[in-house]
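Input sequence (413 aa), recorded before submission:
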Amino acid sequence: MAPFDRTRTGGSVPSVAAQGTWWYAAIAGEAADSFRARVRIRMRRACLAAILLLTLAYAGLVLTATGRRWGDAAVAGRLADPIVARLLREHPSAQGLSTLTLILAVLLLAATGLLRKRYAHTGAALGTLAAALLVAELLRRYAPGPRLADASGATVPSGFPSVSGVIAAGVALGLLLVVPYRLRSVAVGLGALWAAALGAYGIAAGHHRPGDVIAADLLVLAAYAAAVGVLARGGKVRPAPRRGLPPQRLLVTLPLAALAVAGLAAGGYLLGASLPGSAPGPLPAELPRIAHRCGQALAAGTGAAVALALLGMLRRVELDPEPVPYRHAPSEADPDAEFDPDAETDPGLGSGLGTDSGRGSGLASRRDTHLDARHGAGPGTDAPRPGDPLRRIPWIPRIPRYPFSRGRDHEIS
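Predicted structure, token format:
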């Protein structure tokens, strides 16, 4: 068991029958209340909660007539909003720019992990993104729902969930697995703001309904929560050091939190006034514009809230592998021990133990044995070391300077 994988201190220990994971503790050697088990259970609950919210969004926005009319009103309201209409008219090349940014973002995600030599985590991030895209495509083609037709009358697949939204949110949350822990909040926060901007543009351009973007964010949250749970099951997580909150993290986290709170609050406030009835008929004049703004707010707030939720659940959870401890090269005299200049000398290494000259001679002999082993020469040879032209003269004492360094080649003659 890893040193950080011990159970929590304090409190009563539950019985074996009440623990629920005693069989895993007996087989894998992991305590039922260990750090890895807590992270795995937390990610499993987050995955199930995201799947439940995705199911509710699908049932409310796709299967009901009121939800479908609200989505159609939000798409139609983009033409009634003068700000959106002017933006689309003045920037016709924004569609190609959004597609280009999606391609560059996926390449950036892969390049970041490969440059840091985190091949397993890069594969996990790209594999999770591919799995989310596969699930999204299956839902678009085979999930029960109304049959949509284009202008020519041909049946087209549903846009629930949005493929571009899955890619944008998948890249933003995939940075969790490939960036260092100290840069995690900044990278994921910037990625979430970029994904929210792309989702807002997709709704404004009429390519997707608000429910499509919301479903994409929830699907990506479920996928990456499951991926982190698998990494925790394999022991790839460990506690992060407790450090102060850097100011650059606040510069990204605070706007992201403000976007999540403001978007969900404004969307919830406008939702009641923008819901049309289920009966067919013309919509009121103001309802499409209100539905469009409500959908924009809900989509942006959901994307920011998803990123903040995953960052909060992985707070003080390190996904990097443990660093390899540095070890000095042992000497040939004692391969299992490192050189210590403060240790007592062996009487066989120098004469006059207990006197200054004897102690200096013994320390010099022991130090010479250690340095000879480091430079490839055997003990007792007269081969000169690099930078030590007086190595062949035996009568010059060489004493380490203890106040300045320990174990380095500082000598006086």
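Checked by second reader. The beta strands are 148-149, 155-156, 238-239, 317-318.
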